[in-house]
Design goal:
There is one protein chain. Strand 44 and strand 45 form a beta hairpin. Among the domains are: 193 residues; 132 residues, no CATH class. It is built from three helices and 45 strands. The chain is rod-shaped, with a radius of gyration of 34 Å. It has a 30-stranded parallel beta sheet that branches. A seven-stranded mixed beta sheet has the order 34-36-39-41-43-44-45. A three-stranded mixed beta sheet has the order 20-24-25, with no helix packed on it. The protein is mostly beta strands and 589 residues long. The termini are far apart. The longest helix has 10 residues.
């Protein structure tokens, strides 16, 4: 019996042993030249049939053809137990299935196209329990198999040009070889659960692929065209590159990396890159699985904490998800294209408490954080949540949050504060509801920020000419830092039980013009302190704060909750607020 499996994984070896019965007779092609399948050049002196293991493996390059005549007059030769096609070094053996039609299949338990072997399936049907490819296969017909291994025994190449490739149980591309194995789909229909092994590559250039994909470290998926209908999951532990075509997975999850589906080196990484096409998944998960601070502890230092990473780079095209989750060490870098999140995008860190055994009761917090960076294109999301330790940086492009953008920090661990970071450096951010929580580093410089409503909770917000709010500004122990300019704002609400909020006025000129806020119910114990005021007691000075257009812009009770702290030009002290006829408030002196 020929040994056909060497240095392959155990599953393939087991399947081979099961598929090749010990009682099968070996019947080998013996002519050094090619011919027809039904020609009398077989070692047993009879044509192939059921119960035989068929070998096209002898020296000399040749083509053996199964054609329409074979199917009509020698149809019993099309069923066998095992078929192997390979050749010694310097030779190539090829089996051609030429226009047999779909009514008379070539049927075998196991077919192996090995080293220096080739098969062409042209408008014919091949049925096999297992199909191993360590040579070359070109399909322009129909293939049905329980299992397909491209990279079986040796590296292989499979090209699907047209027809249907149906793999019901498992399809594997690649293996532990120095050279790559490749499956190229140029057209046709392809159904399979696919695993791309190290040194394996699946190129989807056309046609339709329906199934799931697991990309192991060292494997690659490339899509330039066609449609990928995902019925389960896309798990990226290696390389993913989409430059065209469409991925349609309205109920499936894409995860980068593929942890915990496959094991990783603690410092390894996975990356998905999209430079075109449409990628639609129900969920996109980038990064490590999240763990709460109380759920895990490590000994010996941060190096022992899991640190492998996942990244998604959106250069162009459309990325569409119902939900996007950036887990610890998960990063999205968007330089172009359109990222649409129909529901929520969440960024959350894991805070690992590391106990250092050498010094009793001493520990540190190791933070594994996610981040989103947008420098071009458009990000549109319903709700955006940025948790402790997470980072969002915008230095270009447009971000639209149709619902709520919420930022949050974390209480300190072993004296280490763990804030979230939100940096607006350039571009445009449009938000319906913005929540700035305590322990959040919220920074705005050149970017334009347009909000409907904003809540500042124990934090600060810089009000520049690039900031606009036409709804509600609520301060709950928060601070508005006015930068030079004339700012038109919405209504003001102060709250807290109790809490002191504040305005910080600059050295230069600043005007804060609020809408009439008398209809809002301010917390009666909340206070508003105005710091650094250097305006005019009669109004119209360098610092101006107005509510509405007349003295009804605030109620007397609201006015009593406002004080000016050490205003310039007046004796040292704090002063209550007085409202002028035009709605401007000044120190009562």
């Amino acid at each position: 019996m020929h040994k056909v499996v060497r240095n392959f994984h155990s599953l393939a070896s087991i399947v081979f042993l099961l598929c090749v019965p010990g009682v099968a007779q070996e019947n080998a092609w013996i002519s050094p030249a090619g011919g027809n399948w039904h020609d009398p050049y077989w070692s047993l002196g009879i044509l192939p049939s059921s119960g035989q293991s068929i070998y096209l493996t002898n020296a000399g390059s040749k083509e053996v053809e199964i054609n329409h005549t074979t199917a009509q007059k020698f149809f019993e030769t099309l069923e066998m137990d095992h078929l192997r096609i390979s050749a010694p070094a310097g030779s190539v053996n090829a089996l051609i299935l030429d226009k047999l039609g779909m009514r008379q299949p070539v049927t075998t338990g196991l077919v192996i196209v090995g080293n220096n072997g080739a098969m062409v399936i042209d408008r014919s049907l091949l049925e096999a329990s297992m199909f191993g490819v360590g040579g070359s296969v070109i399909q322009e017909g129909e293939v049905s198999s329980d299992r397909l291994y491209v990279g079986f025994d040796t590296p292989g190449q499979y090209v699907l040009k047209r027809g249907t490739l149906l793999v019901s149980q498992a399809e594997s591309i690649g293996g532990n070889y120095n050279d790559a194995s490749l499956l190229v789909q140029e057209g046709g229909t392809h159904w399979a659960p696919v695993t791309i092994q190290p040194n394996g590559e699946f190129q989807l250039n056309g046609g339709e692929f329906t199934g799931s994909i697991l990309i192991r470290k060292g494997g690659t998926f490339r899509q330039q065209g066609g449609v990928f209908y995902n019925q389960d999951s896309t798990r990226v532990g290696g390389g993913f590159l989409q430059s065209g075509g469409a991925i349609v997975a309205p109920e499936a999850t894409m995860s980068v990396p593929a942890y915990p589906s496959i094991s990783f080196d603690p410092r390894s990484s996975a990356e998905a890159v999209q430079i075109g096409g449409i990628n639609e998944h129900s969920n996109l998960v980038v990064g490590l699985p999240w763990m709460s601070a109380s759920a895990v502890s490590f000994s010996g230092g941060c190096y022992n904490v899991p640190d492998h990473r996942g990244a998604y780079r959106l250069v162009d095209g459309e990325l569409v998800t119902s939900a996007t989750l950036l887990e610890p060490n998960g990063f999205i870098d968007q330089s172009g294209g359109h990222h649409l999140v129909r529901e929520r995008m969440t960024l959350r860190s894991s805070i690992y408490v590391v106990h250092i055994r050498q010094t009793t009761n001493v520990g540190v917090a190791c933070v594994r954080s996610p981040g989103y960076h947008i420098s071009g294109g458009t990000l549109e999301v319903q709700d955006l949540s940025i948790g402790a330790g997470a980072s969002f940086v915008q230095d270009g492009g447009k971000t639209i949050v149709n619902g709520t953008l919420a930022t949050s920090g974390h209480a300190t661990w072993y004296g280490l504060p763990i804030p979230s970071h939100f940096n607006l450096l350039n571009g445009l951010l449009i938000v319906s509801n913005l929540v700035i929580s305590p322990r959040v580093q919220f920074f705005q410089s050149g970017a334009k920020l347009a909000v409907q409503n904003v809540w500042v909770l124990g934090n600060s917000l810089r009000v520049t000419e690039n900031f606009s709010c036409d709804g509600l500004i609520e301060l709950r122990g928060g601070k508005l830092e006015c930068v030079e300019g004339n700012q038109r704002l919405g209504q003001l609400m102060i709250s807290g039980q109790p809490a002191v909020s504040s305005f910080s006025m600059p050295e230069g000129k600043c005007a804060l013009r609020f809408d009439d806020s008398s209809g809002l119910a301010w917390d009666t114990t909340a206070q508003l302190a105005i710091e650094g005021w250097a305006g005019s007691l009669t109004g119209g000075g360098g610092h101006r704060i107005t509510f509405g257009s007349g003295q009804a812009g605030l109620t007397p009770n609201q006015l009593s909750q406002i004080s000016f702290i050490q205003p310039a030009g007046l004796p040292s002290g704090n002063y209550s607020a007085h409202m002028l006829a035009n709605g401007e408030i000044v120190p009562a002196f």
